[in-house]
Write a structure and sequence with these properties.
Blueprint lengths: L4 H27 L5 H6 L5 H10 L6 H13 L13 H36 L4 H14 L3 H15 L22 H27 L2 H8 L4 H39 L4 H10 L3 H29 L8
Helix pairs in contact: 1-12, 5-6, 5-8, 5-10, 5-11, 5-12, 6-8, 7-8, 8-10, 10-11, 10-12, 11-12
């Protein structure tokens, strides 16, 4: 069963409006940042005349609405702008840092889906018994630990005391696949909370689905238990899980930035931190737009998937 065309059209229009709102919000927030690239480039004892000359050379002296218009017109054609500090296109910064960030996110998602769904199904199958209590207690306890605290704990135990993995990715460059041990702690930190929330959501959905009238009728008609669990109950449990997964990817965009900064991974997070420190507004704006548009697209996809699995459910549009 597919989503009705009017619903898809409304959802696409909403996605376009959200994208436009992201562009406006990003520009407004970056305009509100204290200082600018001209001050950062002028040195520790800036000369007002030098600052004025730098601002003129960088077009920072133009009205904000003119710069917004030019920037938005460039975005339509795929031009994210030019760095104020280096003169390089913003797209090259994103290309350079995209590999490590994508690798971290892809590894996290590749492990998150089977672990989260598997633990949720296992807990639901043994509801109220020892396995369910152990999984529920472990996920609740892990979820309560802040990521930075868990990261420091893992570095202390796995890297410093046991020496199994390096504490950071310093010296490995962007080819992290050649040094997989440098990814162990960052991926564990990124996995910790999403696995807990996804497994608990799948568990709750499976329990509700297995207690529903249609599964009761299926048992009466002699439908095998495995088919009821995985052919009927699991798809209904995956509808809210798909939306949770999209929210998890949103969270990963922020989490990856923090993890890359903590473990010195040369990805988009490191690029963003450097751009903020240098007041390189076009780079900050370009990265923020990429993250924002990615969030809109992921939520649109999650709504379509949820509507496909549970077409009667009310999906936010």
């Amino acid at each position: 069963m597919t989503a009705p065309r009017p619903w898809i059209a409304r959802r696409l229009l909403l996605g376009a409006a959200q994208t436009a709102a992201v562009v406006l919000l990003v520009f407004a927030l970056t305009e509100a940042l204290p200082g600018d690239a001209a001050i950062a480039l002028a040195g520790d004892q800036p000369d007002p005349e030098r600052i004025a000359a730098l601002r003129e050379a960088m077009d920072l002296d133009r009205p904000a609405h003119e710069r917004l218009t030019d920037w938005a017109a460039g975005l339509v054609h795929g031009d994210l702008g030019t760095s104020l500090t280096s003169g390089r296109p913003v797209g090259t910064y994103i290309t350079d840092g995209f590999g490590p960030t994508l690798l971290l996110a892809a590894l996290t998602l590749a492990l998150l889906v089977p672990l989260g769904v598997g633990l949720g199904v296992l807990a639901a199958r043994h509801e109220g018994r020892l396995a369910d209590r152990l999984i529920s207690s472990a996920t609740l306890g892990t979820y309560a630990v802040p990521e930075f605290a868990l990261g420091m704990l893992l570095v202390t135990v796995l890297a410093l005391r046991l020496g199994w993995v390096p504490p950071t990715a310093v010296g490995y460059g962007t080819d992290l696949l050649a040094h997989p041990t440098a990814l162990v702690i960052p991926v564990l930190v990124l996995l910790s909370r999403p696995v807990c929330s996804l497994s608990r959501l799948v568990r709750a959905g499976m329990i509700d689905a297995l207690a529903s009238p249609y599964t009761t009728h299926a048992r009466r008609y002699g439908v095998p238990g495995a088919r009821i669990r995985y052919g009927h109950a699991l798809p209904n449990a995956l509808a809210p899980a798909a939306q949770q997964l999209a929210r998890t990817v949103d969270w990963l965009l922020c989490g990856v930035i923090v993890v890359e900064a903590l473990y010195v991974i040369p990805g988009l997070g490191t690029v963003l931190m450097s751009a903020v420190a240098e007041r390189d507004v076009p780079v900050v704006q370009g990265l923020a737009v990429v993250f924002g548009v990615t969030t809109v697209v992921l939520n649109l996809g999650a709504d379509l998937i949820a509507h496909r699995f549970a077409p009667r459910a009310e999906v936010a549009a």
